[in-house]
Design a protein that fits this description.
The structure is a single chain. Helix content is 31%, strand content 27%. It is α+β, with helices and mostly antiparallel strands and 191 residues long. Helix 1 crosses helix 3. It is globular. A hairpin with a 3-residue loop joins strand 1 and strand 2. It is built from six helices and eight strands; from the N terminus they run E-E-H-H-H-E-E-E-H-E-H-E-E-H. The protein has a domain of 123 residues: Aminopeptidase (3-Layer(aba) Sandwich). The protein has a five-stranded antiparallel beta sheet, with helices on both faces.
Amino acid sequence: MPPSQSMPPTPVLQTPRLALRPVRTKDAPVIQRRFPRWEVVRWLDAKIPWPYPADGAATYVAGCLEEMARGEKSHWAIIPKSGPADLIGVISLWPDDGISRSQRGFWLDPEFQGRGLMSEAAERVTAYAFNKLGWEHLWLTNAQDNHGSRRIKEKQGARLVDLLLGDYVEGRGSQMVWLLMQKDWAVRQAA
């Protein structure tokens, strides 16, 4: 999708274990409770304020809603079908701007990590990008030390194409840049 085109309204997406629905205003208190943990934020973009302010989630959600209204990004709340009823993380998707080499971001409450839930959410959002939006590729990034995020990209069949310096909440560090091609992903899905 060229950057001049906007994202369609963020749809509800389903996986076997998850419902992915657009982030909404009433998610802010849950995000404020689940998000500001060092093990979540340490490898995220340095623009995230740390220590996380009391209005951090409200400000974040307001920004997500504005980006969705302008057609710039999609932001999904990740909700397990077996409970709890509130979100346990967020996954976002945006078009290739030709500059940043990043099109997807996510975080997950550590209590729910290690169960393959983020891999499942990432697969569903990737399928949406490739099958519904018709994108030919996804640029993906992560801090080199964020092994969980790296494994998700490897499982999806992304190819490591560059190492850069990135600025994270934790400080400056190596950033891995991955390219996931739709045709390679489709072959992997068919296998």
